[in-house]
Predict the 3D structure of the following.
Amino acid sequence: MSSRTSETVDQPDAAQVVDSMERMGGGPYPGYRRSSAKGSCFVGTFTPTGEAAALTTAAHLQYQQVPVTVRFSNSEGNPHTPDAAPVTRGMATRFHLPDSTETDLLGITVPLFVASTPQEFLGLTEALRPDPTTGHPDPATVQAYVAAHPHLAPAVMQQPPVPVSYGSAAYWAIHAFIWADARGGRQPVRYRWEPESGRAVLTTEEAATRTADYLTEEFHERLRSGPVAFTLRVQLGEDGDPTHDPTTPWPDTRKELTAGRLELTAPVQDQEHWSGQRFDPTRITAGITLSDDPVLAFRAHAYAESFDRRSRRQRGGWSG
């Protein structure tokens, strides 16, 4: 499906990338994720529309309602980052399938990822390492990195919105996936969650008045008035649309369908358990395959490395 060959030379290993993410976040913070350290989990149901059923055999995209667990978070490795910080938010959804297996879908509040290869991501995280004196990245270093990788500029310069609510943000899955139908047909797709209540963001002045945990507090309050709903929009790729590069969007003219409706109804009963789970964009199910995106494939290794470090800490076997 790709229009050009992705970079494969000098790919870093997962430990290198996770080490760099720890440095970028001012950590490590033992027992926490290296990204999306702060979050809250909720339960609900996903009801497919059936519009996707002819294009994929995936169980949760047919006609049967399935339960879900969702974790909202911010992108930072620092678990003390206030909710009003101008950073990316995440929505990790686990679908609990009828055969007792699971599949995950991870989205963030910007449509493009900041690197097209694992090596580029490592370089960017190194450029974003805080200066020991200021505690912030050196703008000149970041600008130099972007100047050396101009194709990344649109993605790196995205301004993540500060949402009114976790329930008033759109979340893009950023990578392409491949749907497979019952006859072996293949369809490249990209996913996006749209809030049913509409998108709503805070101004800088409004954000300055919010508490450190306002997103979680607001979402709990919102649920007291009833379910919070999202629709799953799916963009259908065409020949020539890149499936290997999460920094490059597909044309807005591509056909979209509504695959289903998500309703969140309550916080999870065991917040500690679910906050510790490893949500993984490569945890797919029959009827869906990974695209040729090297960042997508690499995320499984990086998440496993981060999870192992968290687990060792929780077992008392790691002092870092």
Q: What stands out?
A: The two ends are 42 Å apart (CA to CA). The chain is about 25% helix and 25% strand.
